[in-house]
Design brief:
Oligomer: single chain
Strand content: 25-35%
CATH superfamily of the largest domain: L,D-transpeptidase catalytic domain-like
Number of strands: 19
Largest sheet: 6 strands, mixed
Order of helices and strands: HHHHHHEEEEEEEEEHEEEHEEHHEHEEEE
Distance between the termini: 69 Å
Length: about 400
């Protein structure tokens, strides 16, 4: 007998039962409140889950059951889908006193799944508005075809495509972070770092313990800014999950960002080891593109002024771009740097400095701090070099941007 014609189906269509179901499903979470943006025809497991929730919101329990049944058959390790399916089946049975999967919502395993539910539904309800960009990426050079931004508190990873300097979001995934949250300071603190990193390579799953699933993308934690602040630890990766697991709870790793294996595999064609930037953020602000461009243009102009003063051998004007608490990567403070640069420039007849492939990032977890990365080509009458430079620019109390840290990497 078709579900819609069965006694259970007729019971599901009764308004009173639908209201009770809405109140009971997922422990009274806001199943029927707020807008729910559903992917048009999306077939990813998360899309199907949201479509089932959307059906429940609309009182169409029969459709929700069909969606959930197909989903748990397709992804038997998707525990949240199993939980929701079991809960709806318990309500559907009409048996008084039947124990539902959520009878003990204090059970830590159930609570983890409810946290995952909140993360997924929160993204569907409050995800990035259309035509907005993350404020953390001000400018990407053409070297980077894609960039990754992780909103750590929301357990979400976004992929942005760079087309001729214009960004657009092309992917987003649910993700798990460290069990103690974010803001890593020390080795073993079980926190995920906040900062701007690069993917340094890829190790396929066949070369790793099964715990890492489809593979791992190591990140260059600790970076220069982490080292300035004495942050320790290593082994921060983007990686997958064991084959017996679909995803992990929102806070479950020792510091890494963990994706479903299918999502990690989906990244393979987008990530370039050694190049792709990864922003691990404590808060992602999504802003209109023109708002982001204003700060980008201000910083770009400031960096060009720094370059031109250096190229003109205007040493004092060049040095004025550096903050009082400036330090180099090899340990010089501002006073030592001033003495060194004055001495070097006095021996030059001419200097030509060019910069290209400029990237600008508003640094997460910091106020008024921007990371500028670019290729620097330096030529003088007696020396030539090309390096990849990292500069950390901070807006001072008077509103002027100054360099507080500088580091060079060999190309």
């Amino acid at each position: 007998m078709p579900l819609h014609a069965s006694p259970a189906g007729r019971m599901l269509r009764r308004p009173g039962f639908r209201c009770a179901l809405a109140a009971l499903v997922l422990g009274g979470l806001p199943l029927l409140s707020g807008a729910l943006e559903l992917p048009p025809g999306g077939n990813k497991p998360e899309d199907v889950l949201l479509q089932a929730i959307g059906a429940l919101r609309g009182g169409d329990s029969a459709t929700a059951l069909r969606e959930l049944q197909a989903l748990v058959q397709r992804e038997p390790n998707f525990r949240l889908a199993q939980l929701l399916y079991g809960q709806v089946l318990a309500e559907r049975s009409g048996v008084p006193g039947l124990v539902s999967p959520l009878a003990d919502d204090q059970d830590p395993h159930v609570r983890e799944l409810l946290d995952e539910y909140r993360a997924r539904l929160g993204e569907a309800q409050h995800g990035p508005p259309a035509d907005t960009l993350p404020s953390s990426i001000l400018r990407l050079s053409s070297d980077h075809k894609f960039a990754i931004v992780a909103d750590l508190p929301r357990s979400r990873v976004y992929v942005l495509q760079n087309i001729d300097g214009r960004l657009r979001q092309v992917r987003d995934y649910y993700a798990s972070i460290a069990r103690n949250g974010f803001g890593k300071q020390n080795s073993g603190d079980l926190r995920t770092p906040v900062g701007i990193y690069r993917v340094t390579g890829f190790t396929p799953g066949v070369k790793l313990p099964s715990f890492y699933g489809a593979g791992a993308y190591p990140l260059n934690y600790p970076n220069a800014w982490d080292r300035v602040h004495g942050r320790t630890g290593s082994g921060i990766w983007l990686h997958g999950v064991p084959s017996t697991t679909y995803v992990r709870p929102p806070r479950a790793s020792e510091g890494c960002v963990v994706l479903a294996n299918a999502d990690l595999t989906d990244l393979k064609s987008l990530v370039v080891p050694g190049m792709t930037p990864v922003v691990l953020s404590d808060k992602v602000d999504w802003l209109p593109a023109d708002t982001v461009s204003r700060q980008r243009d201000e910083l770009t102009k400031r960096i060009e002024n720094w370059r031109s003063k250096w190229s003109a051998l205007n040493t004092e004007a060049y040095l004025s771009f550096y903050g009082d608490d400036f330090h180099t990567d090899d340990g010089m403070n501002k006073s030592q740097f001033v003495i060194y640069k004055r001495h070097v420039n006095e021996g030059k007849r001419h200097i030509d400095v060019k910069i290209r492939d400029l990237d600008l990032f508003s640094y997460p977890g910091e106020q008024n701090l921007v990371l500028a990365e670019f290729t620097q080509e330096y030529r003088s009458d007696n020396y030539t070099t090309s390096t990849r430079k990292e500069q950390y620019w901070r807006r001072e109390a008077d509103g002027v941007w100054k360099i507080v840290r500088e580091e060079n990497r060999a190309l």
